[in-house]
Amino acid sequence: MFKLLQQVARVGLCTEAPPADAGALEPAATRVHADILAVLGRALTIRQVDAGSCNGCELEIHALNNPYYNLEGRGIRFVASPRHADMLLVTGPVARNMALALRRTYEATPAPKLVVAVGDCGCTGGIFGAGYASCGAVAGVIPVDVAIPGCPPPPLEILRGILVATRRLAAPARAAGSAALGAAGEAAVAAGRRS
Ligand code: SF4
């Protein structure tokens, strides 16, 4: 016990300081909360898919789920099934053994079916590239709406990418003067985000 207390006194507090630019995100995050409610009328739900990453990007996604970032307070939730998800958050170069599973996950996701590729690997294949075991970028396997570079990208960048994708969803619905995303809105979103 004494040794443990000695170590605690020696090591001190390990917690990192909050990101310097976290405050700059607040107005945008507040607006996106309103956008999510206007378009979906409920929380934005995200299914995370590791398609072959080194898990570095997952650590940052875990960090994003800390209370500090207040994701659930902003109306954003991670879910366990693509059938309950509005958005897929995909990490890693797509391993050839994961390509079919990723496609099936995409097909199982209902509209609006947003896809955000996370990290250099998700954007381009990164240090792994494409080869006998890797398909490379996520966009080579399923359609991607937003790509977030970085190896790995920090939590704030991942949150920004999620917000950008959500805004794309909100814009057509606003233009149609609709508070809820109906069938016509979904078609407009699908056409707009693939162009
Ligand atoms: S982008 Fe970097 S941290 Fe993320 S999966 Fe690739 S190598 Fe790992």
Low-confidence stretches: 174-195
- The protein's oligomeric status is single chain
- Arithmetic mean pLDDT: 83
| Heteromolecules bound | iron/sulfur cluster
Question: Termini separation (Å)?
Answer: 62 Å
What would you say about this model in short?
The chain has 195 residues and is an alpha/beta fold.
Description of the structure:
This protein has 195 residues and is of the alpha/beta class. The protein contains seven helices and five strands. The protein has helices at 2-11, 22-40, 56-64, 96-108, 119-124, 155-175, 183-194; strands at residues 44-50, 76-78, 87-91, 114-118, 146-148. Strands 2-1-3-4-5 form a five-stranded parallel β-sheet. The longest helix is centred in the C-terminal third of the chain and has 21 residues, at 155-175. The radius of gyration is 19 Å and the shape is globular. It starts with a helix and ends with a helix. Residues 174-195 have low confidence and may be disordered. Bound molecules: iron/sulfur cluster (SF4). Residues 53-54, 56-57, 91-92, 119-121, 126-127, 151-152 line the site of iron/sulfur cluster.
What's the layout of helices and strands?
Elements: H1 2-11, H2 22-40, E1 44-50, H3 56-64, E2 76-78, E3 87-91, H4 96-108, E4 114-118, H5 119-124, E5 146-148, H6 155-175, H7 183-194
Helix pairs in contact: 2-6, 3-6, 6-7
